[in-house]
Automatic annotation (TrEMBL):
<keyword id="KW-0444">Lipid biosynthesis</keyword>
<comment type="pathway">
    <text>Lipid metabolism; fatty acid biosynthesis.</text>
</comment>
<dbReference type="InterPro" id="IPR013751">
    <property type="entry name" value="ACP_syn_III_N"/>
</dbReference>
<dbReference type="InterPro" id="IPR013747">
    <property type="entry name" value="ACP_syn_III_C"/>
</dbReference>
<feature type="domain" description="Beta-ketoacyl-[acyl-carrier-protein] synthase III C-terminal">
    <location>
        <begin position="220"/>
        <end position="308"/>
    </location>
</feature>
<dbReference type="GO" id="GO:0033818">
    <property type="term" value="F:beta-ketoacyl-acyl-carrier-protein synthase III activity"/>
</dbReference>
<keyword id="KW-0511">Multifunctional enzyme</keyword>
<feature type="active site">
    <location>
        <position position="235"/>
    </location>
</feature>
<keyword id="KW-0808">Transferase</keyword>
<dbReference type="Pfam" id="PF08541">
    <property type="entry name" value="ACP_syn_III_C"/>
</dbReference>
<keyword id="KW-0443">Lipid metabolism</keyword>
<dbReference type="InterPro" id="IPR004655">
    <property type="entry name" value="FabH"/>
</dbReference>
<feature type="region of interest" description="ACP-binding">
    <location>
        <begin position="236"/>
        <end position="240"/>
    </location>
</feature>
<comment type="subunit">
    <text>Homodimer.</text>
</comment>
<comment type="similarity">
    <text>Belongs to the thiolase-like superfamily. FabH family.</text>
</comment>
<feature type="active site">
    <location>
        <position position="265"/>
    </location>
</feature>
<keyword id="KW-0012">Acyltransferase</keyword>
Amino acid sequence: MTAGFIGMGKYVPSHVLTNADLEKRLDTSDEWIRTMTGIEERRIADDSTDTSHMAYNAAVEAINNAGIKPEEIGLILVATVTPDRPFPSVSTMLQQQLGATNAAAMDISAACAGFMYGVVTAKQFVESGTYDYVLVVGVEKLSKITNWEDRNTAILFGDGAGAAIIGKVSEGRGILSFELGADGSGGKHLYQDEKLVMNGREVFKFAVRQMGESAESVIRKAGLMKEDVDFLIPHQANIRIMESSRERLGLPVEKMSKTIHKYGNTSAASIPISLVDDLAEGRVKDDDVIVMVGFGGGLTWGAICIKW
Ligand code: ACO
């Protein structure tokens, strides 16, 4: 028996912050941001919309999409580096708000790779027969730790949430392979010191190398070849990083998920948000072999190869 995605949901705040808006506040330009990152606009949550609020909305959609009841969930995993507060965790807040009375709950801190860490953890519990359903949410309110005076970082990030119900799927489908990893020696390149601090160039180099290696690794572990891959969902950090992974896999442009232009980098939420849009817009279809790959502060990385 394999574990796979059986329901998906997302939430993005309604307020749109465009590159033109940023031009008014910072020494930057729409042209620079588009060319260097691929971002055109991002969503920003207002003061009354905290991380748990976004997580809740995405989770409700995923539960309904899976056609299950909250009481059937055995574990809630929330991947975030921007919880409402250090504790109680966002996952316990969700547990209460959803009425998931039989669920254990914990948050995962693995930055932008957090959703991958959550999905792989869920897979272990489902395949061992411990839980029937695990709710995994990737959610960030990065706007509250963004230094809005720093043009190197303020242009990159957005807020949002994506959620998945992981449960049993039929043999031959679901999560075929995974890879998780970390390199704490790179922690100095991306961290929170009240606000987010980043050495963009170092993170960029790491990301290009790691995204490609991890994607190839999960394809190999699944016993497949690059030619077998139908679709790539990379963490939406920078279009140039994403393109380098796509080219390494030899996939055409239309076989890569791209939502960065409308949401920016939403960290742990970027992969599930993209998957929801890819499903809604028909880019992901039954039987597709999909590679999802993320990297983030820590440094951390994670990838899965899945048959949809
Ligand atoms: N507008 C205009 N100019 C800018 C801006 C801006 N917003 N930001 C930087 N510049 C300038 C720099 O000052 C520099 O000017 P100089 O040459 O006169 O010194 C020039 O543009 C080039 O700057 P670099 O930082 O060297 O540009 P780079 O090609 O590295 O692109 C970027 C910067 C887009 C941030 C890139 O490094 C990147 O995307 N890095 C990865 C970031 C990332 O993926 N982070 C993931 C975070 S994941 C998580 O866990 C939250």
